[in-house]
Amino acid sequence: MEKRIALLIDAENTSASYVKGILKEANEYGVITYKRMYGDFTKAALSKWNKVATDYSIVPIQQPHYSKAKNASDIMLVIDAMDILYAGNVEGFCIVSSDSDFTRLVSRLMENGKDVIGMGMSNASKTLKAACTTFKNLEILGEEGDSKKAENEITPIDDITPMEEIVSYIYDIIDKKANAGKETGLGEIGSQLGKEYKDFDVRNYGYKSLTTFVEDTKKFDVIKDGTTTIVRKSSTGITRSDVEQFIVETVSKKSMKLSELGTMIHEKYKDFSHKAYGYSTLGKFVSSISDVDVKKGRNRNSQQTVSIKKNENKKI
Question: Exposure pattern of 181-196 as b/e (b: 16+ CB <10 Å)?
Fold first, then answer.
């Protein structure tokens, strides 16, 4: 029997353009038996939700604001959630909001043994994300009618756990399994990442599959073993500290253009990728090294120059 899900949407805190993605994602967790949205739908700002209610059969819970100090629709959402909880008709909830005020509601639902799928913007509070069973960033679900993106294109978002931290945690998972004399399965890595980082989703980083995500870090070997996929530490053995030390030693000898340094890095470490450490460009990766200075020339088309920071006495 599929898990029954109550979908409760804070319409005053969520764009109606995400509704198609919200419903598609929620359906991955079970069958949606309650579909409700909350807000004062007489306001022009929420006019798009009126069409959404008809198109997707979502029940609008009209809640006028009785005062400027209180958000009546939020209170109604909480009341309905508790009524549904005690009715015992669902096994899980999907709360769509970026509002940290719902953190206690989520915790209460979890305390009563219900799974809670949170959905909101990536800049939602870490406390709200941590309270949920899992949290999905709305940006990765895609906006309905967004013709600017190709059908198979996923744009990475910025306000997420750095790639370097994810890689480090995967290392820990593999080490713990190795200490027990066992291999690490790809599925286990996905499960553990989801438990440690409630908003973890490979789509946050621009990927569609966990396999490709792990492979593209260049830190792991993904091996097919029958019906099982095994993940091991890569034999290349490249570490961030190795690359940083090489950069410091190289530019301490002479200043150079960023492109020249990039060539030297790839000659030394053929599998190096700044994206594996969460940086969109090589310049940002190099700038993160405390002893190194990256400057752009005065001319618009001038290349960036890399050098050792002045007045630094750190031993190389």
Answer: eeebbbeebbebbeee
Contact 154, 207 (CB under 8 A): yes
pLDDT tens digits for range 178-220? 889 999 999 999 999 999 999 999 999 999 999 999 999 888 8
State the Cα–Cα distance between residues 73 and 208, nearest whole angstrom. 35
How do beta strands 92-96 and 4-10 pair? parallel
56 CB-side CA count, 13 A? 25
Q: 240-308 belongs to which CATH class?
A: alpha beta
302 is written with which tokens? 């001038």
Q: How confident is the model at residue 237 (pLDDT cuts 50, 70, 90)?
A: low
Domain locations in the chain as residue ranges? 4-141, 163-233, 240-308
Q: What is the pLDDT of residues 98-129, one digit of tens each?
A: 999 999 999 999 999 999 999 999 999 999 99
Q: 198: burial class by Cβ within 10 Å (0-12, 13-18, 19+)?
A: middle
What is the second-level CATH architecture of the domain 4-141?
3-Layer(aba) Sandwich (3.40)
pTM of the predicted structure, to 2 decimals: 0.71
Q: Determine the Cα–Cα distance for residues 92 and 178; give it in Å rounded to an integer.
A: 35
Q: From the CA atom positions of the chain, what is the Rg in Å?
A: 24
Q: Which fold has domain 163-233?
A: Nucleotidyltransferase; domain 5 (3.30.420)
